[in-house]
## 1
Amino acid sequence: MGGDERLRVYTDGACSGNPGPGGWAWASSPEHYGSGGDAATTNNKMELTAVLRAIEANPGPLTVVMDSTYVKDGLEKWSVNWIRNGWMTKGKEPVKNREIWEPLIAARDARKHEIAFEWVKGHSGDRMNDLVDELAVVERDRFRASVGGTIAGDPGGGGKISDLPPAEQRAERRRRDSRIPDGHLLLAVGMTPDGLGGWEANPTADRVRGHLREIFEGQEHLHHDLRILTGLRPGAELLAAEAAIAADVPYVAVLAFPEQDRNLSPASRARFADLVGRAERVVQLERKSPKDKDEFVKAMRRRDVWLTTAADEAVLVWDEQDDRFDRFHADLDARLGADLLVLHP
């Protein structure tokens, strides 16, 4: 069977502590994925669960791509001796995580002629590996809060918010992540100054700010608990904060990491600081600033995933030509559907 006939699914796990809150994820594209987690788990358990869930959720010819040598070597090398030796290691110790290894190996064997496994180096710039890493981290962070007995908090992972009835999903997101503000959350994101007339005051930026103000005022009539979510990046996000002030609608500044404004000009930093100070609430997602451009890109991508997940509605300021926003639009559209508005500058 040719490799190009198989669906390629990437997997990853993440954990904080051992044990600690963790998350797992699989994805074949930004639109086709699954994720979940556990409040008390390990990284290896999450890596294993990600592969198991990927196999269970994707029938037919499949290539599972992972960055865990522990899982790949276990599937392709060690498991033969484990089973032969009654689930004992060479050192005569019980195999750890047997409760996940056994169903995973059974799932592999049931489809042994149509499943292949590949390894990819983690954090090496592979787009899909980065995506599942980000999804797993989001789940890990959600499970930092106490997880109760709902479907979405199913012990052992596997539960997804999407398993809940739509009316319950909003409350469940907030229960699982205390950083999500109260209220009806309208996310405003979009193009940077280079696509909005430049860094200085200009007619395009003024027009976008005015349109955002009108949208916010209209939405406040529908949702009296309206809150605007903005990351305050230069461009549409800063304009959204200013539009919220003009519309007298509270906004929440969501900062990806400390000193997010460190590379801005003095004038832009002053504008940023002023808008942070006017926010009803400031949410900082990560404790450490990125050390280089690659870390910056990944941190901002994690921020985008968090914003997409937290929002009840979204406005994306986008000309539908700047391909830097293709992925963000796809994620928002998959998550929000008709509750996503694309505003052309």
## 2
Amino acid sequence: MTQDSPQAFSDSEPSRWKTRRRELLAFLALAFGIWPIVAVGVVGGYGFLVWMYQIVFGPPGPPGG
């Protein structure tokens, strides 16, 4: 069977839709599952670093004296 036969084109359609569906599910998982969790973790981690820095070196502002 050659790639130019009608059978070859009809066989590629279901796999094309499977690939498209798999890509859509991967996008939805990334967009609404993984990336929001990563974003909250990054912001929370940065807040934790600032908090620890201020515990060690004091709050920002003019030196008390």
## 3
Amino acid sequence: MGDVWSGLGTWFHQVFVEQFDVWIAIGFFAQAMFSARFIIQWIASERAGRSVVPVAFWFFSIAGGGMLFVYALSRKDPVFIAGQGAGLLIYARNLWLIFRERKTALTNAS
């Protein structure tokens, strides 16, 4: 077990001290934004007493996914680029559908 902690300590030192640069900071911030969408969804579901996906979920998906996409580009990681790129299309499409539905509802209410 001591080897695990020693190895983890070495890894943390390498990432946060030896190799730390602005891209690592951007990557961690982007991941935090992307992860925040689940907290938002969880809170909204708890308040409603049922599973819901608030519009903020999709905005955080785009913000975090977009930043992770840029991070992946900087790292030249084709797997990460493809995954985040595809996700961005889905998130944007969901927002477009939501806004189209709201626009139709407003038009019909008038």
## 4
Amino acid sequence: MQSDLIDEYYLSIMPIVLGDGIMLFDQIAPSQKVKLLQTKTYNGIVDLHYVKC
């Protein structure tokens, strides 16, 4: 991410209670603009597909 080499992001969200949660990108700056292209939901899991703007 810091070298600006990633064009697409695929994230899966699984609903598990973890208190404050886990930060995925807490060490990375500056923030990047992304656009949500697609979502899929199955068995309580949410898949997200983002592309860089």
